[in-house]
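Quick illustration for those who missed Monday's session on complexes.
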Amino acid sequence: MPNLNEARKRKNKTQVIYDALQIPVEMIHYGKNKTYFVKTYGCQGNVIDGQNIEGICEYLGYKKAENYINADLVILNTCAIRETSENHVFGLLGEFKEIKRSHPNMVIGISGCMAQEENVVNKILTKYQHVDFILGTHNIQNLPSVLRDVIFDNNIVVNVSSYEGNVYEGLPSVNSFKAKAFVNVMYGCDKFCTYCIVPYTRGKVRSRKIDDILAEIKDLINQGIQEVTLVGQNVNNYGQDLSEEENFVNLLQKVADTKIKRIRFTTSNPWNFTKEIVDVIKKNENIMPYLHLPIQSGSEEILKKMNRYMKIQSYYDLIDYIKQEIPNVAISTDIIVGFPNETDADWKETLKLVNYVKYDNIYCFIYSKREGTPAAKMVDEITTDTKKQRLDDLNKLVKKYAKQNNEKYLNTIQEILVEGPAKKGSNIYMGYTKQWKVVNFKGNKDDINKLIKVKINKVSQFSLNGIKVDE
Ligand code: SAH
Ligand code: SF4
Ligand code: F3S
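Prediction with FE3-S4 cluster bound:
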């Protein structure tokens, strides 16, 4: 069983394990003529986990199902960041109760961050007994043996560890994106922002060795991938647990030296986003001028209560410096609305910051109480109506500045990396600019995974429209 108190501790030494995947004999080719369906929620780190889970399923012989209704194996790869994401999963689990009545052999599993929460696991074991297994975030490599125990011994299996995990290299993976790939550079988080469940569900910071990351990226280049996103909860901290040489600036430079066409990274905590990082971006054409720098609140008081370690003036200075050094940069952020006892004055500070930075995009969320975190014990006097009103007001600003920023691109020529049709079967295709702006244009399937030029002829707050140009 998971245990959040245990998960808080940071005491074990990390090991890098290269041959983690062991297949019990009964499972070799077991999935032949069977199908799987994995539904992933949450952050890019969880997307990578979902890709590994799919990779393991295919390794066992399963084929991907179009949807979950008729799949033999269904895995919900969950996120615990807010209550809404959890409710969604419980809703779907309710549906599965019905589905399993007519498909009694369907195997249903839960993976991802919800699997690390004891209250969730208890609820599943008592109220959702049609779930066959729960697989923790440190345990993905055990999927074949978990399936064995479920299928051959008819057991309900909980395979979750609450100690800091290891680094598992070389798990199989399925990348359904045609043009891009996510690459983990580090796992876990030691920051313990007071509202956040991640340090408990993902364990302590463990960085991958720089050589393993570079080898993976070279492999992706050989497969034709044009863009990589380096993924971690705070990539600035990359290598804090390794040698001095292995730090984020060196990593970025070495990835840029592979000559992959485009590099992004997420997430960077602005607190330790240094001038050296700005310099390395400036120096390398292939590092995209798009920065996601989550601030959470414009009020220093609230930041302190969040344990976010940042003087708000330093954030203003950092933004000024970035805009001066990288003039074509696009910046986005995350904001939590209605942290416990956020006053009107605090909220005004947030609006002031938003009006100053004029973000390209903001991911805003109403604060959600996460059991087991320090903020969950704070008394909160702010009403839901106030929080909703604040979120509405913020959303209006987000739209206003997104549109304003997008207007800068009208009549310019932009390079985009084409992902595919904007909608299934449509001849309108979509791709991303270097600043991570969506562009829709009339295209065809030969454009997929190509870097092409488009002239922007229309903009809205969400996206740009363009026409292909031969240049
Ligand atoms: N490691 C990243 C954030 C990962 S979580 C960072 O520190 O920037 C992604 C976002 O979810 C956070 O930036 C925050 O805005 C939001 N979030 C996290 N916990 C939350 C909670 N309890 N309620 C509402 N939003 C939350
Ligand atoms: Fe959560 Fe803070 Fe870690 Fe980000 S840095 S994952 S918000 S604890
Ligand atoms: Fe969600 Fe876990 Fe990622 S809580 S945001 S899936 S680390």
